[in-house]
From TrEMBL:
It is an enzyme of class 3 (hydrolase). Its EC number is 3.2.2.21. It catalyses: Hydrolysis of alkylated DNA, releasing 3-methyladenine, 3-methylguanine, 7-methylguanine and 7-methyladenine. Residues 132-299 form the HhH-GPD domain. Pfam families: AlkA_N, HhH-GPD. CDD domains: ENDO3c (cd00056). It comes from the Bacteria. This is DNA-3-methyladenine glycosylase II.
Length: 309
């Protein structure tokens, strides 16, 4: 067992972040006492990690325990991955300062202070789950994710408990379309998921190489693949790579949040959101994230600007 401590940049509200995960019923995480627990595939091996906050929002500290056997070198790789997952190095205060002159966004940053993205564990997992989530509700997408996990991989057993393991590209590539059809995948969705896995497993698509590319280059590369469109790539850039400067202006949820927050009479179009978003750069992703979260607020945001443009 290995333990290490991560000290993210403040503010960092671990409790708020984990509550959001619970709200979206993330199928890979468990909540044991005050720890966030999941399996993690690093360097071809599967580890069971527990993440626990031992600090505060303004003086954040996170303790990570690798519950199964790992060398010091392996623990170093896991630490780097967990830092990425928790977006520990993102400077939220710089984001808050940048949008502080917008009354709507100022209220949002106060309401969700310390909230940041928790990224998917690896790029393969992110893209597969995003493809599965196309044109279905969150509940059914979660069901399909669980069925894929059960069909393609074995759980990790630790101290008598079983923990789900997201399958590798090779494991998904070995499935047949019929196996996924038997688990309520549509024929097209089964093909999209398995064909994508086969491209990764064969080496014709190198996901790690994408980290060094610009977002528009990644978009250009991915939309050539069957079953992957602009929305899917935008989700991948947000929740896989954690790009801070992405604006999914066509997203209905974002447009609804802009309408609600800015007191517009009608839902704005994509062009309107892009024009409004010029002032958000280079933090468009975080403005989008906070606006999405505003849709879950019970009381409406104030509407100081009837036309922010």
């Amino acid at each position: 067992m290995q333990q290490f401590t991560i000290r993210p940049k403040a503010p960092f509200d671990f409790e708020r972040m984990t509550r959001r995960l619970q709200g979206v019923s993330h199928e890979m995480f468990r909540y044991e006492a005050d720890a966030l627990v999941r399996t993690l595939r690093v360097g071809g091996k599967v580890y069971l990690i527990a993440i626990r906050s031992t600090g505060s929002v303004e003086e954040p500290e996170v303790q990570v325990t690798v519950r199964n056997e790992a060398s010091r070198e392996e623990a170093g790789l896991i630490e780097s991955r967990v830092r990425d997952i928790l977006t520990a190095d993102v400077d939220l205060q710089a984001f808050y300062n940048h949008v502080s002159q917008d009354p709507v966004l100022l209220k949002l940053t106060k309401a969700h202070y310390g909230l940041r993205f928790i990224l998917e564990a690896d790029l393969f997992e992110c893209m597969v789950k995003t493809v599965i989530g196309q044109q279905v509700n969150l509940t059914f997408a979660s069901t399909l994710n669980r069925r894929l996990i059960e069909a393609a991989s074995k759980p990790l057993e630790h101290e008598g408990e079983l923990y789900p393991v997201f399958p590798s590209a090779e494991q998904v590539a070995a499935l047949s379309y019929e196996q996924l059809r038997e688990n309520q995948f549509s024929q097209r969705k089964a093909e999209y998921v398995i064909d994508f896995a086969r491209a990764v497993a064969s080496g014709s698509l190198d996901l790690e190489e994408l980290r060094s590319l610009e977002s528009d280059q990644i978009m250009e590369r991915f939309i050539k693949l069957r079953g992957i469109g602009r929305w899917t790539v935008e989700c991948f850039l947000l929740f896989g790579l954690g790009r801070p400067n992405l604006l999914p202006a066509a997203d209905i949820g974002l447009r609804n949040a802009v309408r609600k927050g800015y007191g517009l009479e009608e839902q704005p179009g994509e062009g309107y959101v892009r024009e409004l978003g010029r002032a958000w750069a280079p933090w468009e992703s975080y403005v989008t994230f906070y606006l999405w979260e505003s849709l879950n607020q019970k009381e409406p945001l104030p509407s100081p600007l009837t036309n922010p443009l």
